[in-house]
Predict the 3D structure of the following.
Amino acid sequence: MALSIEDFPMVKVEAIIRPFVLDDVKDRLRELGVGGMTVSEVRGFGRTGGKTEVYRGSSYTIDFVPKLRVETVVPSARCDEVVDAIREVAASDRIGDGKIFLTPIMDAIRIRTGERGDPAL
């Protein structure tokens, strides 16, 4: 029997997005009551491969496109709601909008207080 996300107490939602949609994603997640997130600057490529730029008459290829990685951990029951919210504000219907990855989380511990599980989020 295969496990599903709902079999775990929490889920890490990791979204690779275009940099200019960060504020919209952050605002939307705050509206949902998501307590926090981590944002990292990342570079990568997918279907778009890269892009060709011209500088001082010479053409060169940028192999890795700048993106942002937004990570947050939410209770499993809220996973679909958070994924839908990110898609709503980050999608432009063009190649390069990004990806969302879901990872099951067994536990979370707040270092300062020792709280575990949902209260630690």
